[in-house]
Amino acid sequence: MIVMTPEATEANIAAVLKRLETSGVHVLVLPGELTTAIGAIGDPEGVIEVIARGIDMFDCVLPTRNARNGWLFTRRGDVKIRNARYRDDTRPLDESCACYACRHFSLAYLHHLQRTNEILGARLNTLHNLYYYQTLMRELRESEVVLEICPTSNLLTKALPHEEAVRDVFRTFVDRGVCFTIATDGPEMMRTHLRSELALLHRIGALDEDELAEANRQGHDASFIAPVGQRVAG
Ligand SMILES: [Zn+2]
């Protein structure tokens, strides 16, 4: 779910919707005042693109899954490490990246690990992609971006395999000062609603009551939708 800010013009919204549809990304368009809320997007370019168009709430779930499949995100573009062009390449994956994989290993070695299905390859790839997203998130945080996340969606898709992983992610957000808010992706399909998402996070020790209130405040502050009572009569 992406919620657009007042800066998101209709032309921008139409452009984003078109891009998402042609990318095969699920697009959810809600009626009335919620027309500017659209479905999830997770690739780094997509995140940056929609931010540039005035959107500042999003969620992303694919860095680790792509990493295991040898799909790596870098500043120079995506690297599919299985590709034969990397077989003899002694450079690091991303010279501008300070992650463990980039500091210690070459493209050729990562290529070899992926080709031979060595589990170390999946781990190094994952380290890099998470580091990349962390760097991206830090830059986004400095741009006052608010991350929107649905715990149940992440559990059902196995993006987060169990409740402890959900707790770890939220504690990481809090520890690193990431602005985030809680949402429900497809509440009717997942048989959830916002209250049960908040109760889940509280029950598993992901967020205390003050932190839940803060997450809700972040969502309200980032939303383009005026609070009830301040809306202009139609
Ligand atoms: Zn790296």
Total discrete domains: 2
Strand percentage = 5-15%
Strand arrangement across the biggest beta sheet: 3-6-7
Give the helix level as a range of percent: 40-55%
- What's the number of helices? 11
Key descriptive features of the protein:
single chain, 234 residues, mainly alpha, 2 domains, three-stranded parallel sheet, two-stranded antiparallel sheet, 11 helices, 7 strands, elongated, binds zinc ion
Describe the structure.
The chain has 234 residues and is mostly helical. The protein has 2 domains: 10-58 and 146-222, no CATH class; 81-141, no CATH class. The chain has 11 helices and 7 strands. The strands form 3 sheets. It has a 3-stranded parallel beta sheet. Strand 4 (71-72) and strand 5 (79-80) form a beta hairpin. The radius of gyration is 19 Å and the shape is elongated. The chain starts with a strand and ends in a 12-residue tail after the last helix. It binds zinc ion (ZN). The site of zinc ion has 8 residues, from helix 4 and helix 6.
